[in-house]
């Protein structure tokens, strides 16, 4: 930034700023003069000469530019170079006016939308046009700005710059470190607010995930910042909507994947402990899902607590080959178990049911099954009667397990996975257990219906959060409307004064000619 200006230089700068601002206010947006003022004469260069915390007279000279830059004709200008110049100028205004901001969060949001129009891998001329805004965004006055909505807007703009310039970041490691420090602080602050800031932060979260900024954070080995961000996500899950939590989850999984240490895995594990399920249910769910989806990475950090490994063991196979392999393995183990039973089972205490000798404890159950469903082992792949007898005992044990736990919802649901494996093995042996499968489906439907109220309550919570955010946003918009109306009235007065002065000058000129 330029050094302190002399009094004459300051006075000259005020005059130039006033002239440029008034032209910008009163020149039609379709005119080539707009491009001349913004691009050729470069207001940005004038602003770059200004120090932070200007005098009252300098602020007054800036007013027309501040007002003109957020006019819809400029923010919506069809020329991309004009959009970029406007963005550069607004960034300079924010730097000059810090710690205050003369723009609302909605107006600053427009800068991000302007940058969103720039495609990735731009031309050399476009990169040159972007250079001032690339530099302005990482100025210490912006990265350290005290206003939250300014932090969010700057973060969104830097995200867009990183997207546009990928794979080559236009910032040094030090600048990126300061940027990530601001991002983490912003996330820590934003958990306490709703309204416009909350909505904008949601958009930034989308950009953060899309641009994969977590990868860059890991590459810079910013583990202390990564841990803070990870903790913040786990803490904030209970106060955010499902869609936001899913974005957080995606970022956290990516961070674990790129991490070379165990700290992040340990944080997820701590959040997924059983006691957290009661105190912070959504945080508990988030920690559990992150562990499940990061199973491959978690296994690299063995030995690890058994509780984490139990999560990993519950992950369903999605690969067809691995499913078949697991199926074949279960079938082989089951056959070996049956052969072992065949050799070692005692013959005492057995009762014959329809030609099958089974334990006395399960005989009544088998009789009831045969009475209702017939000989369910008639098509069994094992032809030896003793093997079929052992298989039928397994069927009876499953039925008995379901009967005992019928009135204990928690137990029967927790054991359903084990029962599922047994039924799959029975089906592999060609035992008719379709009736048992149907009964299990009924249990699942019952469990689903029991969970429905909780799901509805979660949806209601999400709607309540959205409602609060929308109400806060509406209040902010109304305040902006009142402020805009006041500014419009002030601008109208200034225009009238200018016209009056102009008429007076015209009259004076005419009078002087007459004299």
UniProtKB/TrEMBL annotation:
The keyword DNA damage applies. The keyword Cell membrane does not apply. One of its GO terms (cellular component) is nucleus. It is found in: Nucleus. GO terms for biological process: DNA repair; mitotic sister chromatid cohesion. Keywords: DNA damage, DNA repair, Nucleus. It holds the Pfam family PEARLI-4. This is Phospholipase-like protein. Signal peptide: none annotated. InterPro entries: Pds5 (IPR039776), PLipase-like (IPR007942).
């Amino acid at each position: 930034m330029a050094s302190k200006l002399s009094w004459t230089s300051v006075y000259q700068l005020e005059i130039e700023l006033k002239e440029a601002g008034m032209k910008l206010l009163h020149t039609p947006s379709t005119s080539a003069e707009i491009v001349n003022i913004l691009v050729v004469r470069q207001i940005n260069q004038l602003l770059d000469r200004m120090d932070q915390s200007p005098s009252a007279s300098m602020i007054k000279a800036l007013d027309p530019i501040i007002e003109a830059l957020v006019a819809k004709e400029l923010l919506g200008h069809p020329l991309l170079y004009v959009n970029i110049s406007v963005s550069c100028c607004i960034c300079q205004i924010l730097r000059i006016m810090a710690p205050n901001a003369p723009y609302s969060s909605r107006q600053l949001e427009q800068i991000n939308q302007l940058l969103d129009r720039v495609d990735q891998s731009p031309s050399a001329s476009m990169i040159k046009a972007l250079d001032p805004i690339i530099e302005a965004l990482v100025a210490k006055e912006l990265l350290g700005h005290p206003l939250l909505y300014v932090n969010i807007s700057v973060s969104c703009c830097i995200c867009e710059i990183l997207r546009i310039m990928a794979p080559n970041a236009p910032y040094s490691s030090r600048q990126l470190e300061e940027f990530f420090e601001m991002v983490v602080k912003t996330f820590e602050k934003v958990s306490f607010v709703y309204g416009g800031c909350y909505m904008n932060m949601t958009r930034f979260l989308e950009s953060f995930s899309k641009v994969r900024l977590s990868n860059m954070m890991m590459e810079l080995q910013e583990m202390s910042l990564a841990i803070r961000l990870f903790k913040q996500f786990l803490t904030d899950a209970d106060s955010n909507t499902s869609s936001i939590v899913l974005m957080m989850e995606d970022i956290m999984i990516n961070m674990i994947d790129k991490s070379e240490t165990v700290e992040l895995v340990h944080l997820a594990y701590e959040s997924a402990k059983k006691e957290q399920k009661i105190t912070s249910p959504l945080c508990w769910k988030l920690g559990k899902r992150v562990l499940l989806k990061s199973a491959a990475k978690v296994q690299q950090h063995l030995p690890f607590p058994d509780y984490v490994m139990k999560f990993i063991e519950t992950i369903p196979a999605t690969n067809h080959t691995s499913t078949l392999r697991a199926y074949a393995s279960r079938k082989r183990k089951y056959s070996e178990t049956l052969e072992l039973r065949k050799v070692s089972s005692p013959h005492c205490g057995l009762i014959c049911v329809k030609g099958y000798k089974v334990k006395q404890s399960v005989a009544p159950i088998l009789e009831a099954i045969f009475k209702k469903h017939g000989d369910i082992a008639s098509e069994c792949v094992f032809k030896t009667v003793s093997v079929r007898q052992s298989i039928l005992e397994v069927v009876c044990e499953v039925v008995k397990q379901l009967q005992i736990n019928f009135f204990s919802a928690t137990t029967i649901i927790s054991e359903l996975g084990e029962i599922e494996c047994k039924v799959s093995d029975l089906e592999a042996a060609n035992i008719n257990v379709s009736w048992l499968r149907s009964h299990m489906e009924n249990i699942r439907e019952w469990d689903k219906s029991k969970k429905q109220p909780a799901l509805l309550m979660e949806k209601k919570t999400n709607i309540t959060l959205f409602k609060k955010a929308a109400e806060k946003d509406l209040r902010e918009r109304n305040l902006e409307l009142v402020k805009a109306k006041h500014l419009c009235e002030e601008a109208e007065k200034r225009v009238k004064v200018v016209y009056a002065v102009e008429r007076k000058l015209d009259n004076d000129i005419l009078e002087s000619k007459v004299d």
